[in-house]
Amino acid sequence: MKQANQNLFAALRAGFPADLDTIAVETADAGTPALRYSWRDLDRATAMIANLLQSLDIPDGSRIAVQVEKSVEAMMLYLATLRAGYVFLPLNTAYRSAEIEYFIGNAEPAVVVCSPQNFGWVSQIAFTAGTKHVFTLGDDRSGSLLERAAHCSDRQVPALRRDDDLAAILYTSGTTGRSKGAMLSHGNMRSNAVMLKDYWGWRKGDVLIHALPIFHVHGLFVAIHAALLNGSKMIWLGKFDPRIVIDRMPEATVFMGVPTLYVRMLAEPALTREAARNMRLFIAGSAPLLLETFTEWQQRTGHTILERYGMSETIMLTSNPYAADARFGNQSERRGGTVGFPLPGVGLRVRGDDGADLSVGEIGGIQVKGPNVFSGYWRMPEKTAEEFTADGWFKTGDVGKVDERGYVTIVGRSKDLIISGGYNVYPAEIEGAINEMQGIAESALVGVPHPDFGEVGVAVVIARPGATVQPEAVIADLKSKLANFKIPKRCFVVAELPRNSMGKVQKNLLRDQYKTLFA
Length: 519
Description:
Blueprint: H1 8-14, E1 23-27, E2 36-38, H2 39-55, E3 63-67, H3 72-84, E4 87-90, H4 97-107, E5 111-114, H5 119-129, E6 133-136, H6 144-149, E7 166-172, E8 180-185, H7 186-199, E9 207-210, H8 217-229, E10 233-236, H9 242-248, E11 254-257, H10 259-266, E12 281-284, H11 291-301, E13 306-311, E14 315-319, E15 341-342, E16 347-351, E17 364-369, E18 376-377, H12 381-387, E19 394-402, E20 408-413, E21 418-420, E22 423-425, H13 427-435, E23 440-450, E24 454-463, H14 471-479, E25 490-494, H15 507-514
Parallel strand pairs: 1-10, 3-4, 3-5, 5-6, 9-10, 9-11, 11-12, 12-13, 24-25
Antiparallel strand pairs: 1-2, 7-8, 8-18, 13-14, 14-15, 16-17, 17-19, 19-20, 21-22, 23-24
């Protein structure tokens, strides 16, 4: 019996409407003419890029590393990688040379695609690491990738893949400063996408405003997969602009964003109930949504934001309800400050430090299980074993509780993870960079509340005896080495750091000390 193709692309392609000449994506950036792409354009272009990749005669399972600005063509490259049966490896556009060198060295991609302006330094890193193919792709439809693909056939049969075949690797920084590549399979992503299409009530005629980056789970997987599976048009913004999003709401029905985007839209007088009258659903995630933002959005628009919770390793895990659901006692209330219920098919439990199950309302470590949960970290078997329990549950590293009605609340994160503007910032990495600076004896990075980003880093440093350290110089030095989202907003030089009896820095005291800094 012939095996059905479980390639994620095949499932997404099956969602395309019967009339391939209708509009699939329309760009909406300020100062540039709108571009319109039909479903046929998506089908043909992904076939041509997939054929280009397959013509390179690279090994089965090859990684395709991509660091480019957001564009419809960049989305096509992602879909083409799936279609050709290779493994997509998206990289944040803010990463600098030292970070890219690590990712390319660790993943050993067969192909690297970068922005034209970065070709010089990226290609040098890639070729030195043994990558044979480096292409460019600009956000203005320029670059060698499209030039080469233009000579390829626009017909292609999606590569045969099984559910457990690797589809993507997402790098998530480790608390030790060493990044880990979370391995997601075709089955992980397809099962989550199909379930969310049903759970969030996607229907014929829905239109998505896509204003998120496409180098992480939220914008690349959750938003794009849903729209394609449903055959829904996307209004596409290369960069978020609150005025444009509000202006296009009458043509749309769904919006997904991180809390920062909602804060910025609330600052616009144009955001009214009338502006949002055609919208069906606003979804928030990637960082905690402040209760004041949740409430103000209700008052201004008449809509209640649906907050959900996920990770690079698991895609989506929980969600506030879209509508009444018998699986959850027909509860339909979207509760601010919570991330809702475990999604259908997802197991979630809260355990104490001793591994025992906790009672309702007790706070502990969140563990999850389900078809969406990744298989492990790329080339890190020891780390993978450490992060899974003996009975196969993934330890998320998040700390939370489940109330008597089943709603999940995230109350903190283990190992001092900071989530700033939707991006994970791991203090150990930044502290390591600071401690290498001349005149620095020691440093500590803590997260404090911020009205726009949810949370930002504050660096507290001790100077070496006889040395003079300028806080501004510390931040300037970091900006030359690390992605912008990792840079602390403030730096303080102190005589000593608070410690416990074992000599460990008490970061909770530092957080308390600086928690009103941005209030």
